[in-house]
Predict the structure.
Amino acid sequence: MVRHTPGHTKGSISVEAGEGEALVGDLVASGILIGGVVRLGHAIRPPFEDDPGAVREELLRLVDAGVERFYMGHGGPLDASEVRRHAEALAPRP
């Protein structure tokens, strides 16, 4: 299922691939250094976010919908508990 998941950009989408997996593009990143080669499994913010509050909402919505494994454009993959930890640390929308 393809879902509109704004936050990184207004037009961002994510693809729920079934069996608790989702491709989320740049909604979240992982690791540090080029390509996330250090601290794999640790969620970080992508190079920019149009709306961090929307990123928070979308990541939490995906976790609450049952996504257990997140694949992203930079680094990864991440499990749901790490994505939840990261999302909850982002400021909510005002």
Summary: The first strand starts at residue 2 and ends at 4. Residues 2 and 15 are 4 Å apart (CA to CA). Residues 52-64 form the longest helix (13 residues). The two ends are 29 Å apart (CA to CA).
